[in-house]
Amino acid sequence: MSPQLPSHSQVVVVGGGIVGASIAYHLAHAGIETLVLERHQLTGGTTWHAAGLVAQLRSTENTTKLARYSLELYATLKEETEQDTGFRQPGAISMASTANRWEELRRTAAMARYLGIEATEITADEIAERFPLAMTEDLHGGIWLPQDGVVGPSDCTMALARGARQQGARIVEGVGVSDVLTEPTATGPRATGVRLDDGSEITADHVVLACGLWTRHLAMTAGVEVPLMAAEHHYVVTEPVPGLDQDWPILRDPDRWAYLKPEAGGSCLVGLFEPVGIPWPKQGPPPTDRSFITMDPDPDHLSNWIVPAFDRIPALHEAGLRLLFDGPESFTPDDSYILGEAPACPGLFVAAGFNSIGIQSAGGAGMAISHWIQHGEPPFDLHDVDIRRFERFQNTEGFLRKRTTEVLGLLYASHHPHRDFETARDIRRTPLHDRLAERGACFAEAAGWERPAFYARPEIGVEAEHHDGWGKAPWLPANGVEHRAVREAVGLFDLTSFTKFSVAGDDAGAVLDELSAGDVNGAVGRSVYTQWCNDAGGIEADLTVSRRRADEFLVIGGAGTRRRDLHTLERAVQGRNATVTDLTSAFAVIAVMGPNSRDLLQPLTMADLSDEAFPFATNREIDLGDALVWANRMSYVGELGWELYVPTEFAVSVFDTIMAAADARPELGLELCGYHALNSLRFEKGYRHWGHDITPDDTPIEAGLSFAVAFDKEADFRGRAALEAQKAAGATQRLVQVKLVQADDADAQLLHHNEPLLRDGERVGYVTGGMWGHTVGAAVGMAIAIRGDQKVDKAWLDDADWAIELPGGRVPAEVQFRPWVR
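The structure assignment produced for this chain is given below.
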């Protein structure tokens, strides 16, 4: 080991790009002993070739907070460190060449204004005024973001590194890390340090992998999956263009898959996020023996996209090319970066996979990782970038190579509602998949699962095709058929993607009671809807706990939170007489819902399905046809029904039995139903969805779920003190039900997500989600309403004029606590 290296550090950060430097900067400012190890030179991975764009707006409120934090940090970094960062704010214009894109941009701008970001809709002529060389004849308009900035990526990294060193951090170049060290514990490995290329070791309390596209393979040495892969990213830099001013704004031209950044001296950097990316390297892990990597661009591939990009500034066609660049950037399966502590290896943190937005994200990511290490949790809800959101198979080479071809272009693809991935599909099927496909299912993907979104109904002109717009989709009539069947007759859903955990042992009830805000440690056969909270009372999980036997419970959650919820359970049972078994793949789930569900199922079982014998929120094993199934009388649609948990080998037989019974009794009106119907039904009933309507930043009281909190139970539970205090004081924000008031249903606008909510003309919240409510006959959804430091109550809701900010203006709305269908 080199004499300059210690044998131990509180934190070892692997990677000396802008993200690693930011993490070191924030840890050092917190007084934490930090060692950064960079195999080659600082910035030599991918930071050095970044375009240096610092935008503020991201897809969610909290990732926008991180981006804004970065911008604010970079604006002051030179003053603190006396190291120039190249920071300036020329602003940026996002442009729309299509009606769909213009709708998307105007919705994005409305949410930006709610978040305090200056965002103005401007015309094509106004774009031309700000960028006189631009061709604007094809544009519907643009969004002017005057605060967006740029930095010199290498300069900014050096400033962060200097700021870290000034606070005591050690940053060492030329030291490669070959392995993450771990030690076994009762619950699995824990990170204890790193092994260097020369075989020497450095121990640490925490290890942070911030080594870009090399992170995936290094993490594997600790048994941790970090699903990312590099793709080739192309840009060109022109010779000087007469009249081009570097102080003109950056142009984002997503319909041409390009961004255009004026540079010093009148040249222009034109970067591409083309719709079909090229994974790199062609096979195997990325090389570790060199830095500042570049590739030879394919002229044919490049010419497909660079020519239309140049058309935006026609003068570029006359300029020579100073640089034709092709370099690697790491991308993740969902196009969001990866932060957090690895669930399979405590003590190991990851900050990687930044999908070409590492510069704008690095400041906030460094702050978040530092907070996470100090406090054991992120500064606010970061579930959409949390490493626990991925499934293990998504780290396989085959999956990543397929998906990476798509995700490069997703940065500039249209982000319309219900957009679905096109690559790496048809991998994770339920046992009923083929049966449902035969009956016209149009599938959508969630956590890799292929799930019916809706069913084709040629008799009403609906094919099994998705829709790429913002208005009423062609599948909406089919959605209406399925929706009304559940409300008025009976519908069948395949809910196999539910996560299912068995928690068993003498301490199982006590463990779950300490986790759950609800009173789950009750009688055998009882099912309880509950939340798991953090210390602030925020909702970390939203699920059902069902007692199957005296010493066994089944915990049921959503498809996208399997690893997150499993991680919570595995930590909770440490040192207790309880075990956790993941049964997600062991059972299919067939949900039969609607007022005729009992009439359909009762002839198929010897069990008594009456209200008296099988009341709501109870569960038991029953026979059904030729199989034994576990029946749970719960509902996510607000109608009579049962979730049938069927061992996978019996699933097709049970499905066929139910369908045969329905065919024999057409008067019952059974319809196969997809997840679009599940959502439209739940919105009418006000049923929350974790990750959209409720998050770790929202408490059960704020979410209108006080009924699910057992304040009177003996067991203490995490977040109890915070919830009791909030209950006494009253909540200053609430989740409310919203409905648009529109005269013409045929031309009605819809609620989707992130539309600002206005009270007497003032923005006080935003829509968390919505769909068309077929029972109500209107666009319905849920929204967060915030009242400063005063309690949100019924009088405050009633004594106001409400509206939703949508493209084209503000649409009147009704707002209330109660659901629209009771």
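Interim note for the steering committee: The mean pLDDT is 97. The longest helix spans residues 61-81.
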